[in-house]
Design brief:
This protein has about 675 residues and is α+β, with helices and mostly antiparallel strands. It is built from twelve helices and 36 strands. It folds into four domains: about 20-120, Sandwich (Immunoglobulin-like); about 135-430, Glycosidases (TIM Barrel), CATH 3.20.20; about 465-595, Sandwich (Jelly Rolls), CATH 2.60.120; about 605-685, Immunoglobulin-like (Sandwich), CATH 2.60.40.3080. The structure holds calcium ion (CA) (3 copies). One calcium ion binds near residues 166, 169, 170 and 217. Keywords: Carbohydrate metabolism, Glycosidase, Hydrolase, Polysaccharide degradation, Repeat, Signal, Xylan degradation.
Length: about 675
């Protein structure tokens, strides 16, 4: 029988003779948000294996809200115990789960903080409603406009590494880290902290410290983290600890020996220092899952076993909630032709008895990196992780090609065009059964609407404000404007300038030659005033394609304006001009639709001038495009007969387009460059 004596908040284990069961609330995540009246699915992962002592069985799992028991069950599917908490009223709640094993030993999970309120839930990320989170990393405080559309979890790429925070002893710099955490917290995303103890990118002054000082320093670091970040779902408490079974016989992280010595050494268990570290983490972070994270696992079963040996002593003491596998390209791309073996390796990780968190997945393709091989890797590897019942969620380590740490691992180009892997990943997610969690709610994206975040449900994401000629103003999202839905945009000029264009609220909306557009929006102001709505080139010669004044009152009004463009402009932007008047303006429910009659917009028009050559036609899994005589890149799209864009990207004189994902049928290739637009009809066999 395990005996835990609780002194303060520290567990001091007396003689242990049984491994307690695990209990990890995999859904909802900490800081999840629901609308009042929702039915909330609570999932608990619980096993009674993975420790030093013989495996047992989980007898039951109890669910608690603010320490009050609401449910109990012994029924599970693949170690997940589920309860649906119905009609939840507004408030903030702390959920825990307690598992009891066949020896009568119990373990209570880390807490999960839930927020329930009046505002609707907005779908976030391509995995919304699909049962697991799919997150990414943020390298800086600036957030791409497509982040919330693609991802629903966040890890700071570098900002939370100890060396970034405290390069100089006792001088902590949390600025970037705070911005990244706050973005996650404000949007109720899954937040993973990376990392507390890691023998790389740590402050080098640690190397000179005696254990007592070392421990005091890491406690200071944890205490500051705990004070700043109450809503972290997971923490990489120990990162890259492997050293016995590595590819070159060396420490995975060269500085790990300093941590090993500084935190108390191996001791009787072989891992006393790890136990000390996780005990402290439990104490400081009662509402976060404690994870051990490493790489070189999938392709190295000895490495998995070494990690399992450490996990065992933590499992005996109820100190670990997740097995983290980084899953980088160099360890997993090679499984593209053997997903069955990859599945076995994940099974090994799951024998830890705690959920598997995929923490840094990136794929470039094998045997060599290419867009086509990357697609193949995604198709063969991603589903093995995603569909494994022990995998609780996945974080990709970057997504913008050229900005990821590993060249070739990006799945979107900097200009927002999607690589084949992302086109596939979006479709894969759409094809997954909708289970209603997490992040399930109202659609934030209307595929027909060229405007992103026109309801301002995602804050100001996608929009920016430009002040010209000495004007100054700021935009914010408010929830009491009485406009469309819960949120609306408010812009209050501090210095309104003298002309309407001196203050501009903008979003890029590329337009096509000969196409007709309808713009609708709702607006009001604190006093009767005018604003302009315009579509203007946002750069180069700032050509105005359309501009019209509208008269605002203090009551919300809906406006509809239309125009037909006689040029193609890939850098056109929808703009609201608000300068020249200091009355605050409210804008909401903005849309811009291409309303061109598709029977005339997509003629069967071969390129007459002969400067665009597309072959073969009919095509199968590849399409080659040569564009002669261009002074820069052209933008291409492949559309189906309904006008939906299926593939898009840039062409610099020659491009090979992967078309294996397209089904047989008729397509249109639309090529846009300068003021030229070409549409070519093609057939896929
Ligand atoms: Ca047991
Ligand atoms: Ca310090
Ligand atoms: Ca709105």
């Amino acid at each position: 029988m395990a005996v835990f004596i609780i002194v303060g908040c520290t567990f001091i284990s007396a003689e242990i003779t049984n491994t307690p069961p695990s209990a990890v609330i995999t859904y909802p995540h900490s800081n999840a948000y629901y609308q009042e009246g929702s039915n909330i699915v609570i999932r608990v992962y619980s096993t009674d294996f993975g420790g030093t002592f013989p495996n047992g069985t989980v007898e039951n799992v109890e669910f608690f809200v603010d320490d009050e028991k609401i449910y109990e069950t012994s029924v599970h599917q693949d170690h997940t115990y589920t309860y649906i908490w119905e009609d939840v009223q507004a408030g903030e709640y702390r959920i825990t789960a307690r598992a009891t094993d066949n020896d009568g030993d119990s373990f209570t999970s880390a807490g999960v903080i839930l927020k329930v309120g009046e505002a609707p839930v907005i779908k976030k990320g391509i995995s919304a409603g699909k049962g697991k989170y799919l997150g990414n990393v943020m390298g800086s405080s600036s957030v791409r406009a497509d982040y919330l559309q693609l991802w629903n979890g966040v890890t700071a790429e570098n900002a939370h590494k100890w060396g970034s925070i405290e390069g100089e002893r006792d001088v902590m710099n949390w600025t970037t880290g705070d911005n990244i955490y706050n973005f996650a917290a404000d949007n109720n995303l899954v937040f993973r902290y990376h990392a507390i103890a890691w023998g790389s990118q740590y402050p080098t002054w640690l190397e000179d410290l005696e254990p007592e000082e070392f421990q005091a320093e890491i406690e200071e670091y944890m205490a500051e983290m705990a004070a700043r970040y109450p809503y972290m779902d997971q923490i990489d408490v120990l990162n890259e600890n492997l050293y016995l079974n590595t590819y070159n016989g060396r420490e995975h992280a060269a500085g790990t020996p300093y941590f090993r010595a500084g935190l108390g050494g191996p001791g009787e268990t072989g891992y006393d220092w790890v136990i000390w570290l996780f005990e402290k983490a439990r104490e400081y972070f009662p509402n976060s899952k404690l994870v051990m994270n490493d790489f070189e696992l999938e392709n190295n079963p000895d490495g998995i076993n070494e990690m399992l040996d450490v996990v065992k002593v933590l499992r005996d003491r109820g100190l670990i909630d997740g097995f983290g596998t980084q899953a980088h390209t160099f360890n997993v791309d090679g499984f593209w032709n053997n997903p069955g073996l990859l599945r076995q390796r994940i099974d090994m990780m799951a024998s830890s008895g705690v959920p598997v968190y995929v923490t840094e997945l990136d794929l470039i393709g094998a045997p060599e990196a290419s867009e086509a091989n990357q697609l193949r890797s995604y198709q063969n590897i991603f589903p093995v992780y995603w569909e494994h019942p022990a995998v609780a969620g996945i974080t990709l380590w970057g997504y913008v090609e050229g900005a990821t740490w590993w060249t070739g691992s990006g799945i979107i180009n900097a200009d927002g065009t999607k690589r084949d892997a992302l086109i596939w990943l979006e479709q894969y997610m759409r094809d997954q059964p909708d289970v209603g969690f997490p992040f399930d709610g109202e659609d934030m994206v209307n595929e027909e609407n060229m405007v992103y975040n026109g309801e301002f449900n995602l804050g100001t994401s996608g929009w920016n404000v430009q002040n010209n000629a000495g004007a100054s103003s700021s935009m914010e999202v408010v929830n009491d404007a009485g406009m469309s839905g819960y949120y609306a945009l408010r812009i209050c000029p501090d210095n309104a300038g003298t002309a309407s264009w001196h203050i501009q609220i903008r979003q890029q909306t590329p337009i096509l030659n000969g196409h007709s557009y309808t713009i609708t929006f709702m607006a009001k102001a604190d006093e009767i005033r005018n604003i302009d709505v315009a579509v203007q080139q946002d750069g180069q010669s700032f050509n105005t394609h359309f501009q019209q004044q509208v008269n605002l009152t203090t009551e919300p009004q809906e406006f509809t304006v239309s125009f037909t463009s006689s040029v193609a402009d890939p850098i056109a932007a929808l703009k609201f001009y608000l300068g020249g008047n200091s009355a605050c303006v409210y804008i909401d429910n903005v849309s811009m639709m291409d309303v061109t009659d598709s029977s005339t917009s997509l003629p069967n028009m071969m390129n007459k001038e002969g400067n665009i050559n597309v072959y073969p036609n009919p095509f199968s899994d590849k399409l080659f495009v040569d564009v002669a005589d261009t002074s820069g890149s052209s933008y291409y799209e492949i559309l189906n007969i309904n006008g939906q864009v299926l593939v898009e990207g840039l062409i610099n004189s020659h491009k090979t387009i992967s078309t294996e994902l397209l089904t047989a049928g008729i397509y249109f290739l639309r090529i846009m460059g300068g003021n030229e637009l070409e549409i070519i009809k093609l057939i896929k066999n």
